[in-house]
């Protein structure tokens, strides 16, 4: 059955700083037990600064130094607030939110406000007044590239690429940032969650933090779990996604498979037992396009996970970049090139393009209020229903087929990716 989509897309030329004239280019599980040894002595490290000055994704660098300087200033200083405004769309059924030569990494719906995390800052948009405000380094963030946005302890929180974890005050004016000197594994934060017991978990490129009781300002409450500290129970220090199970266990998407923290013990699954389908593919520099720095720095592979839009066709069954647990307690994991994996507690099942998935790069996973699973891929958005995928692409009205972020409302959704967002109304 076809999905009836009616999409509202607003032509937000100013939103996110679009600058005129700047070109843009069924195997059984194999758990591996590990002993928990949380590292509490985390030495202070210099705060990362390279990512703070990096140009937005897909920006074209001008040929001459003078032109480079002009383009850099234009890109670095988009308007910080204003009216979004609407423009005519090719199809009267939809328009699009545009963020210029930036990518939308996360979306959070908080009442009438929509928060959009992009590679050039985080945007707060009012669906009622049509007003927006852009938060970036000028407003106190330590890096512009936002790869996580959510709520921690009742406040808006963002995870950045190189600038730590920042939490916005209740007035919406000032950011409080937590970094390595506070106990954070490193300054590259890809996800966070508040567990049902009050602990805060933070995914980084150097392990995962647990802050007991959510006491972020109390250094003694910060634990850091790494592959070394857990005897490889956590298979990789590069952690991209977090989800809580129905019984309070914590699931983690990592570069080397899916991990679970349950009652103080670690297990993980990788190739041969999950999460990816049978494949002998290995990570390859050619899998990440147009970015020589990806495999040339300590956080090179992490950048590949945080910037999956640059990934090529090469698949890696263990490179897991998204994870969620549905209302029935089933674990879903998205891999960078090997499709979608499902774990029901007894075994793994895999879905790829051969099963109707639009693409094998699964960037985002979202379960809506009606317990429907949405899968954001490199080739469109899919809804899993009765074991089959209903697919939506740009031909149906999406802004882009590369879907990195999905958030739902009572009757619709916001879907973000490369260059912008589509708002979907009245889903059946």
Count the strands?
28
In the CATH hierarchy, the third-tier topology is known as Methylamine Dehydrogenase, Chain H
Q: Which sequence of SSEs, written as H and E, runs from N to C?
A: EHEEEEEEEEEEEEEEEEEHEEEEEEEEEE
> What's the mean pLDDT score?
78
> Per the principal axes of the C-alpha atoms, what is the gross shape?
globular
Please name the fourth-level CATH homologous superfamily.
YVTN repeat-like/Quinoprotein amine dehydrogenase
Task: Provide the fold topology.
Layout: E1 6-8, H1 65-76, E2 81-83, E3 97-110, E4 113-118, E5 121-126, E6 131-135, E7 146-152, E8 155-160, E9 165-168, E10 175-178, E11 189-194, E12 200-204, E13 207-211, E14 222-225, E15 239-244, E16 250-254, E17 257-262, E18 265-269, H2 300-306, E19 320-325, E20 331-335, E21 340-343, E22 348-351, E23 362-367, E24 373-377, E25 380-385, E26 388-392, E27 403-408, E28 413-425
Antiparallel strand pairs: 1-28, 2-6, 3-4, 3-28, 4-5, 5-6, 7-8, 8-9, 9-10, 11-12, 12-13, 13-14, 15-16, 16-17, 17-18, 19-20, 20-21, 21-22, 23-24, 24-25, 25-26, 27-28
């Amino acid at each position: 059955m076809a999905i009836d989509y009616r999409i509202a897309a607003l032509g937000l030329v100013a939103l996110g700083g679009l600058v005129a004239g700047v070109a843009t280019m069924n195997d059984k599980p194999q758990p591996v037990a590990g002993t928990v040894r949380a590292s509490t002595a985390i030495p202070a490290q210099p705060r990362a600064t390279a990512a703070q000055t990096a140009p937005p994704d897909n920006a074209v660098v001008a040929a001459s130094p003078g032109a480079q300087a002009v383009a850099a200033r234009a890109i670095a200083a988009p308007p910080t607030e204003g009216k979004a405004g609407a423009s005519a769309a090719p199809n009267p059924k939809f328009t699009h939110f545009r963020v210029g030569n930036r990518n939308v990494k996360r979306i959070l719906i908080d009442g009438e406000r929509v928060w959009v995390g992009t590679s050039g800052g985080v945007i707060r948009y009012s669906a009622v007044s049509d007003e927006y405000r852009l938060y970036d380094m000028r407003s106190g963030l330590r890096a512009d590239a936002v790869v996580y946005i959510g709520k921690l302890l009742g406040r808006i929180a963002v995870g950045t690429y190189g600038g730590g974890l920042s939490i916005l005050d209740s007035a919406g004016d000032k950011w409080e940032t937590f970094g390595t000197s506070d106990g954070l594994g490193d300054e590259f934060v890809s996800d966070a969650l508040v567990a049902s017991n009050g602990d805060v978990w933070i995914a980084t490129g150097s392990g995962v933090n647990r802050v007991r009781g959510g006491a972020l300002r109390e250094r003694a409450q910060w634990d850091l779990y790494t592959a070394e500290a857990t005897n490889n129970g956590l298979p990789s220090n590069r952690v991209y996604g977090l989800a809580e199970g129905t019984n309070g266990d914590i699931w983690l998407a990592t570069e080397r498979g899916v991990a679970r923290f349950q009652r103080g013990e670690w297990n993980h699954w990788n190739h041969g037992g999950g999460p990816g389908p049978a494949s002998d593919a290995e990570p390859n520099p050619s899998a990440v396009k147009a970015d020589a720095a990806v495999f040339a720095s300590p956080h090179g592979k992490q950048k590949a996970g945080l910037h999956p839009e640059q990934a090529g066709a090469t698949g890696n069954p263990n490179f897991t970049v998204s994870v969620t647990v549905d209302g029935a307690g089933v674990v879903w994991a998205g891999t960078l090139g090997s499709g979608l994996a499902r774990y029901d507690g007894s075994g793994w099942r895999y879905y790829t393009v051969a099963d109707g998935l639009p693409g094998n790069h699964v960037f985002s996973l979202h379960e809506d209020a009606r317990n429907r699973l949405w899968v954001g891929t490199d080739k469109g958005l899919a809804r899993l229903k009765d074991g089959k995928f209903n697919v939506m692409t740009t031909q149906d009205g999406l802004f882009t087929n590369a879907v990195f972020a999905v958030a739902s409302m009572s009757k619709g959704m916001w879907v973000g990716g490369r260059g912008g967002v589509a708002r979907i109304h009245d889903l059946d």
